[in-house]
Design goal:
Blueprint lengths: L1 H6 L5 E9 L9 E5 L6 E5 L21 E6 L6 E6 L9
Parallel strand pairs: 3-5
Antiparallel strand pairs: 1-2, 1-4, 2-3, 4-5
């Protein structure tokens, strides 16, 4: 696991994650998620929108806590970005 953590930034990583907390003090769509590729590590994930107009608006739909999502950390950065929600382990009530 330590080798994978050392390689973040040197390669693109795509992983399943679980949304842990939607608290977003900067109001930019970020949320906290447990990144499965990192073991128990929780990281801030930046929201990615299919549509944005800069400061005038866009589409933001941050997933609920407990939802399984796909996230990525592109080569050259240690940041994590939201790719989309999954129906993996979705509660039966959904």
């Amino acid at each position: 696991m330590a080798n994978d953590i050392d390689l973040i930034g040197e390669r693109t990583i795509i992983s399943l994650a679980e949304v842990r907390d939607r608290y977003d003090p900067d109001n930019n769509g970020s949320f906290l998620a447990k990144i499965f590729a990192l073991g128990d590590s929780e990281e801030t994930v930046r929201y990615v929108s299919p549509y944005a107009t800069g400061c005038e608006g866009g589409f933001v739909a941050v997933p609920e806590a407990g939802i399984a999502v796909l996230v990525c950390s592109p080569m050259g950065t240690t940041e994590w970005f939201y790719l989309g929600s999954t129906f993996y382990n979705t509660p039966e009530q959904a």
